[in-house]
Amino acid sequence: MFGSIIKGKTHKDSDIDTCIISPVFGKDRQRERVLLMNLREGISDLIEPHPYSEKDFQNSYDSLSSQIKQTGLKIF
To answer: Which residue from 36, 42, 49, 63 has the fewest beta carbons nearer than 10 Å?
Structure first.
């Protein structure tokens, strides 16, 4: 998890940013994100999934993954 909820800076429109790392991701991030958004149905529309393969997550040029590594909370 990362973002405003982890930083303690939530507001009424805050979502729950989640980074999901899996070896099945990395082919089409947009399609993978839509899949994860469909899976959240019936749980919470506040969950904002961000899929990554391990390789993509380790990319130092990806500003979002860098932010997640610096400020995120690892959950298993």
So the answer is: 42
Structure tokens at 19: 């980074």
The distance of Cα 41 from the centroid of its chain, to the nearest Å, equals 16
Q: What's the longest Cα–Cα distance across the chain?
A: 35
Q: Is the pTM of this model over 0.85?
A: yes
CB of 2 closer than 8 Å to CB of 71 = yes
Mean pLDDT rounded to a whole number for the chain: 96
Domain layout of the chain by residue ranges: 4-71
Half-sphere exposure of 70 (CA within 13 A, CB side): 8
Dihedral sign of CA atoms 3, 73, 20, 26 in order: positive
